[in-house]
Amino acid sequence: MWLRAWLVGAACVALVLAHGGHGSAPVNTEEQKKTPVDAALWIHIALEATAWAVLFPLAMVLGLVRHKLHVPLASAAVLLSLVGYYLGSHHKGRQFPHTVHGTMASILFFTLLTQAVCGVYLKLHLSWKAEAYIRPPVLRVHGFLGRAFPVLGWTQMVFGIATLQSWCRGGHLGQCLAHYIMGSAFAGYSVILLIMLKCAVEWLRRRGVSEEYLDSWVILLWGIVNTFTEHHGGPWTHKDLQHTLMGVLWWAGGAVGVWLSRKGKRSIFPAIIILLTGWAMSGHAQALMLSTMVHSLFGYTLMAAGVCRVIEICFVLHDQPTGEGELGADDDGWFRIRVFQYLPPFLLTASGILFMSATDEELHWADAKGVDHVTWGMIDFSVALVLFLWIKYVPLSRSVLIDTYIGYGGRYGLARGTSADAPHSSHPRTDWSYASLRSSHTEAPPPAPAESIPMDGYRKPAPASAPEPEHHVLFDEEDPFENEP
């Protein structure tokens, strides 16, 4: 334990020593833009993408389920990020003016340093008088930052792509913000749908709300903001009207959704809003023909997501919550999931990637390279499939992020079949260790960890005299390191 703590501590010191100013060149000229990118910068991109897109998200999930590989994996991610940070600040070849990517790098540096210091402190298990007062807030900061890393990493990678291509400068900034924020929102919505689908059924049931109730509130609030931020003075144009009316559509539809999905009822109106948004974007004419075609493809994909969501709620689930019915022998989650239910999240992921790739600068660059809308669309759908693969499901290794969390039974090591109290326990198969780190010994699954705690939704009905637990275990901020040697 002490050795691991010292290793992480040494990494923190190295980060401090390596932290230097981000050199910046004058504003890019055409000659600078044509300067080749050297090997050091490509290695920087590869290392940072590996650390922030792969290792940190996986380390977060392993930390939530108290896996022993959490610390080694997080330490490896810190090391890769450190080396990549150094190369990004000391490369030759093409130089760049100071951008938000450089500013974000400094923010991430101090965030990473704070996270590492918190992790070292938690691993030391100090025994002193102030421990009872210091450890809980340190644990909360460590947990919050760990959960924020995937979002921060995604944001920085988007900034990095724009910086590498010298996009989003001057008058193009507003359009970049609109496309990147909305596209990321659709991709993020697909992740939330998957989480709700795979492991939040009981969380919704205990609170007496449906997914659509939460969705409708987000749509309502976003629509209000959009209504008053799309016109920036001067004469109204048809684009100003379309964007403003899109906001009106969202807050009006969101209000209907909130009203109809009260008391845990399902509602199709969030899906209707998505469908109408796709219809509007499919006819959103652009100056460049390639841009018009890509916007149309985005609109059709978003319409398909809305239609599939309506079919899922009305004809697949028959207005019932996800998870109703008996689990089959091949089901791999905590709750019954129909195959069709994976289609709306994927289409939302694809819609988000398509919209993020549809800025004027990106499509003018693609048009200059001779790329048509079919090729551009296939690139976007390929990226969406890889992203969906990572956040959701791998048929061969059975799981990555969300399925790793489920495979290890959430934060407390529970999985279907490890407790006689679990519903559907007629299937004795134990899946708590089947994730991509599964042992090669398959004769008999290992027992669940000693710290396993049954989820409330899996307990037998308690006697009338037994008090109800105050919090669901997924939201109890207990120390994930307290039982480690």
From TrEMBL:
InterPro entries linked: DUF2427, YTP1_C
Membrane-spanning parts: 39-62, 69-88, 100-124, 144-165, 177-201, 213-229, 241-260, 267-285, 297-318, 339-358, 373-391
Residue stretches making up the Protein YTP1-like C-terminal domain: 153-394
Record-annotated DUF2427 domain positions: 29-125
Signal peptide: 1-18
Renumbered residue ranges of the record's region Disordered: 436-485
Biased composition (Acidic residues): 476-485
Keyword tags: Membrane, Signal, Transmembrane, Transmembrane helix
Record Gene3D superfamilies: 1.20.120.1770
Any Pfam family: DUF2427
Protein name as it appears in the record: Protein YTP1
Organism: Malassezia obtusa
Organism phylogeny: Eukaryota, Fungi, Dikarya, Basidiomycota, Ustilaginomycotina
